[in-house]
Recover the amino acids of this structure.
């Protein structure tokens, strides 16, 4: 949950995420209807007080290690959460600052899981599409570009490079897996080399220019991706 951080220089509007316990209470109301109450607990003492009250009234307690930020207040959702009897020990410290919530650690309803799987599959298709597009570009478009000192020299040759780079960055937005940029970069390199092999009248000069394009795409993409991942980790650790 976001909170404001107070520093020695005064109060600065910096938002941070802190670990909290989320409580689900299910019972029967005075109107004989099933009710579910949920709220977050931001300090250890309050949680201990709730636990004490529940134990005094012999209310069974369960806990889960999963994040429940998206879990709806329904009996079906609560029943489906993997959980164990609560023995007084949490796997995290309430109030600790955390850099991010891992999407894989969240308990989602079945429909949400299917949407998440579809979204990840689409990203894989997008990465493959970006790579495949390189083949006709190298075969049909690049042979028309002028070459000088091992580089394509016309202003128009920057457009394929720029569009490819932007597309790769867009597909990798929000990525948390360190190997994903390497995989996408490998697919692009493979496709560019396939396109080069399909050019029948290629010259050494043309091959060198394609190699330069290849290196520019992969180096800029990998450097930008890992710099972004490192800065995000650094920001979460020291902010």
């Amino acid at each position: 949950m976001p909170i404001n951080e107070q520093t020695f220089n005064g109060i600065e509007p910096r938002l941070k995420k802190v670990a909290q316990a989320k409580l689900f209470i299910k019972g029967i109301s005075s109107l004989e209807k099933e009710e579910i109450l949920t709220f977050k607990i931001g300090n250890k003492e309050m949680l201990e007080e709730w636990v004490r009250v529940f134990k005094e009234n012999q209310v069974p307690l369960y806990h889960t290690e999963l994040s429940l930020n998206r879990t709806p207040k329904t009996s079906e959702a609560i029943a489906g959460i993997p959980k164990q009897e609560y023995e007084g020990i949490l796997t995290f410290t309430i109030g600790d600052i955390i850099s991010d919530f891992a999407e894989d650690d969240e308990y989602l309803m079945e429909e949400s899981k299917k949407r998440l799987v579809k979204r990840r599959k689409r990203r894989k298709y997008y990465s493959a599409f970006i790579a495949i597009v390189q083949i006709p570009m190298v075969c049909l478009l690049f042979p028309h570009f002028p070459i000088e000192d091992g580089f394509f020299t016309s202003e128009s040759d920057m457009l394929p490079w720029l569009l490819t780079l932007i597309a790769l960055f867009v597909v990798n937005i929000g990525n948390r897996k360190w190997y994903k940029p390497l995989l996408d970069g490998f697919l692009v390199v493979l496709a560019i080399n396939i396109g080069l092999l399909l050019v029948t009248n290629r010259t050494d000069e043309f091959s060198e220019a394609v190699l330069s394009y290849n290196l520019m795409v992969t180096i800029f993409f990998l450097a930008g991706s890992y710099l972004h991942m490192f800065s995000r980790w650094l920001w979460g650790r020291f902010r």
